[in-house]
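Lab notebook: predicted structure, single chain.

Context: the supervisor wants predicted structures on file for every construct in the current expression panel, including those that have not yet been purified. This is the next one on the list. No modifications to the sequence; it matches the entry in the shared construct table.
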Amino acid sequence: MRHLVVGPATALIGLAAALTCVAALAIPSMASARARTSRSPACGSRHAGILKTTQRVKVWKKRTGTDPYSGGSLDTLYACLRPHGRSVVIGQTAGDGPEYVGNVATSQLAITKTTVSDLLTTGLASQQACFKYDPTSPQCATAATETAQVFNLSRHRTLRQPLAGAPVAYAFSSDGAIAWESPVDPGTSGSPLELQAVGFDPSSLEKGAVQTLDTGDLGTALEFTGLVLHWTKAGQPVSQLVSSTG
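Prediction complete. Output recorded below exactly as produced.
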């Protein structure tokens, strides 16, 4: 998560107005990108912005506009089944402008068989504005939000799991689990961490209930072996099976 300092802004713009404005800006761009999906080229078409390919899947990006907050470029990410599958929107990434950071970013991109996963972060410009106007505000830590996304291209199913709080660690298992750590109190420095996870059916992408696995002095390295999650607490290794049915 990026904490950057923005340049001078007019004194008439308060923190509340800035946060409201930026929150609204992220929504139209994603909606318009989804509306364009039906007109997107088939998977067999030539794409200049190829990000990842496998024998079955291609992930690519296309310039689709301008980030209304930063003024930087706005790229939409697509995934499709080769050779002629329909392209679906899986995220967006905005470039930084001369004064403001791009408001949306897509990371942690992975392909497993015909499933694509990524981590979508929105509100990055909101977070900048928050730290600029009131760097001690507890709202700043959660001004940017993260959502884990999973797309089963062969079954046309999607899973979106918001990561609570201000996540500091994230892990994904294609066998059917997502895990993340967040401060128990995001607005307090040195707050203990809470480890949560959710299991899902890899075929249907139906997910179970969010589980709290641990709390306290947790390390920020999370790793799955199948459905077994590994982490550390007070420097000691810990592991637990995350049920794919929640």
